[in-house]
Amino acid sequence: MPTRDVISWNAMINACVCNKYHQVALELFWEMRWYERSGIDSTTLLIVVSALSKMNELKQGRIVHGLSLKDGMDSDCFLCNAFIDMYAKCGELSSAECMFEGMEFRDSSSWNSMMSGCVYNGYAEKCLSYFKDMTLSCGGVQADNLSISCTISACSSLGEIHCGQTIHGLAIKLGYGDTTHISVGNTLISLYSQCGEIVDAECVFRGLIHKDDVVSWNSMIHGLAIQSAILKAFSLLYEMQLTPSVHPDSVTFVSVIPLCAEFKLLYEGKSVHGFIIRRGMRLDLSLKNSIMDMYCKCNNHKPAELLFTATPGRDIVTWNTMIAGYAQNDCTIEAQTLFQEFLCSGPPCNALTLLAILSSCDSPKEFQFGKSIHSLQIKLGFLTNFLAINALMSMYINCGDLIASLTLLHSISTVADVVSWNTVIVGCAQNGFFYEALEAFNQMRSRPHIKADSITLVSILSACGDLQLISHGRILHGLALKTPMGSDVRVRNSLITMYSRIGDVDEAKSVFSTSPYRNLCSWNCMISGFAQNKNGRRALELFHNLAYVPNEFTIVSIISASTQIGSLRHGKQIHSYVLRYGFEGNLFILTTFVDFYSKCGRLDVAIQIFKDLREKSIASWNCMLSAYGFHGHGREAIKLFTELCESGARPTKSTFISLLSACSHSGLVEEGCLYYNLMSTVFGVEPTTEHHVCLVDLLGRAGRLAEAYKFIEGIQPQAELNVWGALLSACKYHGYVKMGEQVAEHIFKIDPENAGYYVSLFNIYAADGRWSDAMDVRRMFDNRMLRKTPGYSLIDVCTR
């Protein structure tokens, strides 16, 4: 153009802004300032401020603001509104407020800009305050659909359902309650769904006349997802696909995919991923990150790995998602390798990155790597971040360094919250440090500003159950009943488990019966409690009254109960149920069936189930080894152990207990001794009391009692009572009276209250005809008022 006036420049700058060429628009503006002698007008600045707001350019925004003041445009209401919006979107809410306060005249846009700025910067209370001031102002400004939408969003952020309902009523009064105002309807959907009022949210959504706005559908789907309404969310997504005027976008799937991740819905997650690919939708980074997270949380990290590799412009969330995914799927080496790659080539590390990688340090062998992460955390200045400190404490407990974890806790004890204390208490309880968990709980209780929550009680009750501390457990039960936690279903379930572990099944049943609400876990805890206390009959009776569809834990507990009472009939019925309802691929359940059939005399069925397993866990191998030993098939057990080693599985302590027991029941003395020696030297498994008992039993059955006695004397530290008990049984079997007397004397010094050992010594004397000595043992037995648990046999009356 030969001549350009202000209108020409404004048109060109506005065209650049409309087409998102913000930097070009800014360059044109400065060029205009240089060449255009007639100067600029308020329209020019209005367009430029709009561009700066979208570019988040605070520094240049201040310069433009200065120019407007210099040129005397500070009284232009439209321009002032633009500056308020620009400052708010650049995070300078205080400057926006100063601008707002300095305005001589304010229109509805001024108030709306200020309120939306407050919501944008997370100051929801200020938004409500400005809305109140606007409605009470003398300027005659009336709330419109935008101000109402902003205020409802503020209520949603604060979880203020009653305030939101009041604004809803005001909107109806002002004429914005009808279903044609989509922005108001969308914010109402978000408000009601986030506050748990799904019915009201659906009522607003169904009342919308125009359902061609994708935001409305996304708001409703997101609300259902927040409330974990899985079926409703997917039904609405299906309905959305059938609506011609609206199509799902990336925001829709960012709401649905996390739902698949949370509930491990791999099939549904794959279907959503496939739909996105079929529709040719652009996979933006947020959507890719959600899909990766879904695959990782569904224990299928390979597709996530492929997606990560194929993503060129990875942000910090992408790296964090993949590192956390590896850690969640026990891919420790991959997680740590990727973390090191991230430090070399990725964006700057944040606290969430450290949280992701620390979760991979969950065993003593990862201790050094965990310490290096601690050093990095100090270097990066994250020691004031409570989440990072809690993750460090958890890491040290999992790696076995309890002192380091407690030191960290004490370093922040003055400001530590209940989450920090729970981190230590839960970590101690899960890693076997039960006394330390109780000590940490007592210290927490001494802090008046810290109140135990349901998570605290669940962990402490678990520790009491494992330590058999009935008095402590009852005190905690009383504490729970004095607070609202007493009705918490998780606390109730923990009480059932605690009493069951201690052996007080009647009290456990009382807690179960008086619970105001019982979920499937409650039933599982009670059924398992009966099974653990050898009360299989009551477990079966409770199972018949089960109010829920059984899951794998229910089935395993009831199989265990059937095993106890030797009920092959009940076990077969449960097996049929498993096959009918699709549990036949569950390794956990099938392993339990191997144990059940072998103990009910059907070794052939147990072998067949074991052979048909698609994959075999170490528990499956151990169970089959135990089955062979139970039936006296020692050679087959040894052959199976060889297959186990060749398969790449790593033998455990339980593996060798089963193997040594099999050798003992089959008279394979030399083989048993060989495997006992190989256990520590080749396989790195240190012998425990159970292994010592098996070896003494092996030698005792073979009549090599002197060798067994010598072996016991060589155990360091001193042999446990059960080991001496195994030798005493061997003395009874072979009639070794003198050695039996020596062993019994030693046992009575350690545990004079065990009735079974008195009976064994009595039988040794009786078998040798020494009735006078036998009666002396009987008198000792009676004087201590001991009672031997009577034996019993079970028969299944209904065999057909």
Question: Brief description of this entry?
Answer:
With 800 residues, the protein is mostly helical. The chain contains 46 helices and no strands.
Notes on the protein architecture:
The radius of gyration is 36 Å and the shape is elongated. It has 800 residues and is mostly helical. It has 46 helices and no strands. Helix 11 runs parallel beside helix 13, helix 41 (689-701) packs parallel to helix 43 and helix 43 packs antiparallel against helix 44. Among the domains are: 1-104, Alpha Horseshoe (Serine Threonine Protein Phosphatase 5, Tetratricopeptide repeat); 618-683, no CATH class; 688-800, Serine Threonine Protein Phosphatase 5, Tetratricopeptide repeat (Alpha Horseshoe), CATH 1.25.40.10. The model has no long low-confidence stretch (mean pLDDT 91).
List the helices and strands and how they pair.
Elements: H1 6-18, H2 22-35, H3 42-55, H4 58-70, H5 77-89, H6 93-101, H7 108-120, H8 124-136, H9 145-158, H10 161-174, H11 182-194, H12 198-207, H13 214-226, H14 230-241, H15 250-262, H16 266-278, H17 285-297, H18 301-309, H19 316-328, H20 332-345, H21 351-358, H22 367-380, H23 386-398, H24 402-411, H25 418-430, H26 434-445, H27 454-467, H28 470-481, H29 489-502, H30 505-514, H31 520-532, H32 536-544, H33 552-564, H34 568-580, H35 587-599, H36 603-612, H37 618-630, H38 634-646, H39 653-666, H40 669-681, H41 689-701, H42 705-713, H43 721-734, H44 737-750, H45 755-767, H46 771-783
